[in-house]
């Protein structure tokens, strides 16, 4: 594919954005010590980022809907670079919190615009695969970006991470300026009409799939490390290996999800992936004190969970083709809210029930998502049949 390398460039940018979001959890103790705040206070940096990202992204996407995608990408990436530079230069907790707010606004625009451009650069039969590649870059930040950020923090201090992201972001802006062609934006969608999309049954159901799928996943994933140590019986020395395998499987699953969607369609990929997701997350609670058994389940769980990512992005973009940018923005917001809700519900479950309960509660969330997929798929099929028999 002629534009393949451009799409991989967008995936690298998605990787930078993902690293800027997820790195906080990897260096939380260093930030708290450096800024003289508690871990709980430092943890609010994650909450604030997710909320600003969730609320700000659809609003900004609506306001910039008609803007050329290339220009929007450069502007939003520029905002993201400035925010990381502020995080690197400004002292104190308050200024860093301010930088994180600006960073979240830029990050949401960058990711949604990258997904939008990737879909437009790809031929019709490769759109899902192209979206999967960009999603894969975001996913890779969990596996590669966070560990690298921890290494940089140990060597040069935690602020160096944001300085490095700003530098690479600036380089990416220069490359994009010379390589990405002007790309027409969507038809302008006023903010009220954007919110009105939520009144449409298929849109509301489509977004609820994201909420329950990723929320169910997050309930278990947020507490995966203590779960593996306390319930699964993985030794502390093997934990990093288990998490690395989990991460690699998520990359493969993300790529496979795009391929499967192009080859067999949205419904088959989502239902198949979620069914395997549910089975594996339940199996994790059954198989304990068997290293190979637990690693096999982790691999299949991660593969299944992330095979749904690009498929769901593509699915939502096709529900309202004239408002694909808005739909992708709403989905990004829903993903952030789902992760926040999953972490919160998981925390309550650990405190009020037990650590072992998170797999069953998480599986319930994914099961609800799968039922919604079936309902939406059935509704879509009935609509097509009705249209085909019209005189």
From TrEMBL:
<feature type="transmembrane region" description="Helical">
    <location>
        <begin position="203"/>
        <end position="221"/>
    </location>
</feature>
<keyword id="KW-0813">Transport</keyword>
<dbReference type="InterPro" id="IPR050189">
    <property type="entry name" value="MFS_Efflux_Transporters"/>
</dbReference>
<feature type="transmembrane region" description="Helical">
    <location>
        <begin position="7"/>
        <end position="28"/>
    </location>
</feature>
<dbReference type="InterPro" id="IPR020846">
    <property type="entry name" value="MFS_dom"/>
</dbReference>
<dbReference type="GO" id="GO:0022857">
    <property type="term" value="F:transmembrane transporter activity"/>
</dbReference>
<feature type="transmembrane region" description="Helical">
    <location>
        <begin position="227"/>
        <end position="252"/>
    </location>
</feature>
<dbReference type="GO" id="GO:0005886">
    <property type="term" value="C:plasma membrane"/>
</dbReference>
<keyword id="KW-1133">Transmembrane helix</keyword>
<dbReference type="InterPro" id="IPR011701">
    <property type="entry name" value="MFS"/>
</dbReference>
<feature type="transmembrane region" description="Helical">
    <location>
        <begin position="72"/>
        <end position="91"/>
    </location>
</feature>
<dbReference type="InterPro" id="IPR036259">
    <property type="entry name" value="MFS_trans_sf"/>
</dbReference>
<feature type="transmembrane region" description="Helical">
    <location>
        <begin position="34"/>
        <end position="60"/>
    </location>
</feature>
<protein>
    <submittedName>
        <fullName>MFS transporter</fullName>
    </submittedName>
</protein>
<feature type="domain" description="Major facilitator superfamily (MFS) profile">
    <location>
        <begin position="6"/>
        <end position="381"/>
    </location>
</feature>
<keyword id="KW-1003">Cell membrane</keyword>
<keyword id="KW-0472">Membrane</keyword>
<feature type="transmembrane region" description="Helical">
    <location>
        <begin position="264"/>
        <end position="284"/>
    </location>
</feature>
<keyword id="KW-0812">Transmembrane</keyword>
<feature type="transmembrane region" description="Helical">
    <location>
        <begin position="161"/>
        <end position="182"/>
    </location>
</feature>
<feature type="transmembrane region" description="Helical">
    <location>
        <begin position="97"/>
        <end position="119"/>
    </location>
</feature>
<feature type="transmembrane region" description="Helical">
    <location>
        <begin position="355"/>
        <end position="376"/>
    </location>
</feature>
<feature type="transmembrane region" description="Helical">
    <location>
        <begin position="131"/>
        <end position="149"/>
    </location>
</feature>
<dbReference type="Pfam" id="PF07690">
    <property type="entry name" value="MFS_1"/>
</dbReference>
